Amino acid sequence: MKRFVSIGFLCLMAILMAGVSVSLGAPEGKIALYTSVPQPIADKIQADFSAKFPAIKLVIFRAGTSEVVAKLMTEKTAGSIMADLIWVAEPSTYEDFKDQNLLLKFTPEEARAVPAEMKDDDGYYYAGRLMNMIIGYHTGVSSPPKGWKDLMSPAFKGKVGFPTPLNSGASEAAVRSLADKYGWKFFEDFKANGGKQVKNNSSARDMVSTGELSVGVLLDYMVRDVKKKGSPVDYIWPEDGAVFIPSPIGVLKDSKNSEAAIAFVNYLLSKEGQQTLVSKGGFYPVRADVKSPAGAPDLDTIKILPTNWKSVREKRQETKDKWSELFGK
After folding, report:
1. pLDDT above 90 covers what percent of the chain?
2. Which CATH number fits domain 131-244+301-327: 3.30.420.10, 3.40.190.10, 3.40.640.10, 3.40.50.300?
3. Half-sphere exposure of 230 (CA within 13 A, CB side)
4. 265-38-301 Cα angle (round to 5)
5. Domain 27-130+246-296 - what CATH class?
6. What mean pLDDT comes out for the span 128-156?
7. What confidence tens digit (pLDDT) does each residue in 257-316 have?
8. Environment class of 295 (CB within 10 Å of its CB; exposed 0-12, middle 13-18, buried 19+)
9. How many degrees, rounded to 5, is the angle at CA 164 between CA 160 and CA 169?
C-alpha cells in the first residue's frame, strides 16, 4: 500500500510542477435534482447549497411525486435519464427504483449521524426530511376532531378534504395506512359523509385556511407555516396516530456527476443542512442533534400510526384503483 501511495504522490507532484491544473477532489459541475419538495423550500435549499458549493450548479425540477416519477420513467424508457438526484415523498417508491437498478449504492459521510431506521439497509437511499400526515382544521371550528374517525362526524359533513393519493406520495402512504388499519370502509364512510377529494396537500391547506373546508388531512409542516404567518388554522396529532413519512433522497446510477450529487446528499444530511430544512422548511430533522421545529413536539413524544411500507408498495395499484372507484380520477 505504501508503494502505491508514494508513486501516486510523486505523479501528482510532477503534474503540478508541469503547470497543469488538476482537481484536488472539490466537486464541481452541474447536477439535476428531481423532487416533490415544495418550490419555495426547494429554492431556499438551492440557495444555501449554492453558497456552500459555488462550483456546483444545482438545477431543480419540482412537481408532485407522481409527476416526478412519471418524468423519470419516461426518461428511463427513452434511455436518457437527465436527473442526478431523486427526492420524493416516501420509501416504497425507492424500493421500486432499486428493483429497476436505477440507484447508485453509496455511503455519504454524514449518514453516520442518521438513525438506522432513516436509511436503506443496502445503502441506496437516505431520509432527507421527516413529515407527518395529520388533521388540520380552521380555528372557527368549535370542537376540533381528535382522531381519524372523527372525520366522519356529522358536524363536518361535506366540509372535510383528503388529498388524492393519485398525485401525492404522502397521501398514498396515509390512505394505505388507514386502509390497512380500518379497512376500505373507513373511506366509504368518509365519502358517505361528504368527504371531498382534494388535488394535493397544498390545496387542502389553502381550503382549510379560507374556511372552504373545516377540516383537512395534510402535512404538519404546511400547517405550522401558514399558522405562523397568521392564517386561522391549527392541527391535531390524531389520538390513534399520525402517519410518519421519512422522505428519502437517492443518487441515480447513471448520474454523469455522481461526486457532486453525493456532495448534495452529504450537505442535506449534515447538521447545517438539517437546520436549514427545520428553520426554512419546518420539517422534522433526521438527526438527533438538530432540534425539532419551533412549537412542534419532540418526535419521540408523538404517537405514530404504523405504516407497512411493503404494503404501500405491493398494494399501490389497489390503493389507486379503490380510491378512484370512490372519488374518481
Report:
1. 86
2. 3.40.190.10
3. 0
4. 75
5. alpha beta
6. 97
7. 999 999 999 999 999 999 999 998 999 999 999 999 998 999 889 999 999 999 999 999
8. exposed
9. 125
